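Structure representation.

___
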Amino acid sequence: MKQNLLTRQAQSLLTATLTLICLSGFPCAVLAQGEDLLLRGNRAGSIELGATVDEIYSIVGRDQVRLVDEFLEGMFSPALAIDLPGATVFPAIVVRIREFPCAQFSVWGISVRDPRFRTPEGLGVGSTIAELREAYAIRLSLEEGPSAIVESERMSFALDSGQFVDDTRTTAVWIWPDPVRIREERCPGRRGGVENPDSG
């Protein structure tokens, strides 16, 4: 009981401290991102599928973001390269952006290169195929480079070798696009990118 009380007091003190820092003008969104390093099926920390570009700026700070062209299949393919405080790789995250399905540029897919980000099972960049197999049903693929695909989590783990031996390691984690979910959550009146006239 005493330990729980101390924990709550510590959390309250941390919240108050962060609030004061934010009010002083420090980019508090960057602090929040540093606290949330969880990989899930629709997000990496505070960066979520469907988030608008302006929302990304608010989360990580405009100075931490660069617009780049991935030039996929020889076509213009805009993405945001994101640097994060404390990261050992730059960029730490690359998010592909599209003007779909909600007719505004938003996060289409998320590529995580920062090894601090982990799934609830503790897996991420640097994990081995053997560790992935222990946690998930995986499908190994050589399409678009060697990867371990985890369909249940809507993630693909890029691998450093196509030999697929147990100690092959993950170099990046790709969180798949989910336009149906994005449309339902962010623009339910749109269907296929066209405004639904019956939506009011």
